[in-house]
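Allow me, if you will, to draw on your knowledge of protein folds for a short while. I am sending you one protein, given as its amino acid sequence and as whole-number tokens for its backbone shapes. Kindly check, if you would, that the fold set down in the tokens agrees with what the sequence suggests. The record follows directly beneath this note:
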Amino acid sequence: MPRRPSIETGALWAPEIPEAQWRVYRRVLEEAEVAGIPVAFGGAFALAAYGGELRNTKDLDLYILPEDRHAMIEAMSRAGLTDYYDQAPYDRAWIYRGAHGESLVDAIWAMANLRTLVDMDWLTLGPELQIHGNRVRPIPAEELIWSKLYVLQRSRSDWLDVLNLLDAMAPRLDWDRLMMRMGPDLPLLAAALSVFAWLAPARASQIAEQVWTRAGARPPEAPPERHVTRARADLLDSRPWFRGAETTPD
């Protein structure tokens, strides 16, 4: 298994979470622990765990096993959260959304497209981190990438997150497990790798050749041109979005 971020280095962004906001999350985490429900967090906090920069969306995605969903809803109710459905209807087939003031907690037991259910690997293979005194785990980077590859919609795309995750984690990913997870949808990963090879060829060249071959993607050309990462990132959006561009020499 590739090395993961340690507790000391993996949550340097944690102080950016307002204490009042974390109090809501802490109550949910504590109620889940009392009920014996294993959880791991995803969403913006998981992106921060692997990329180091927090985009605080004021909601916490907690991944759980499908068989724990009813117990988790009860735990969230004991923590003082109420169903968010009346304020904004959502698909109850894969998620339960609880609200407390402006803070939201999403309990997720399947992908939104129902491609797969959450299993124990989602909950146990991420690094253990310490956030405001609570020890918690993000979902693994591989599952985070896997789930975000399917979010390519007219009104929303998570592929920018995928590209930043590849930049942050590519040499440390368990590529065999990620490609096994992708199954017949491996062309989605190949497409993202192709974009990444064009966007950040120096970083993409750190991915083993057999990964490109197995995924069916073309590896980057070497050596990369100077400034190419920043220039190509700007072609997609001139506003800062790709963290890899920040380390490109001027």
Summary: Residues 5-10 have pLDDT under 50 and may be disordered. The chain has twelve helices and seven strands. The two ends are 35 Å apart (CA to CA). Residues 19-34 form the longest helix (16 residues).
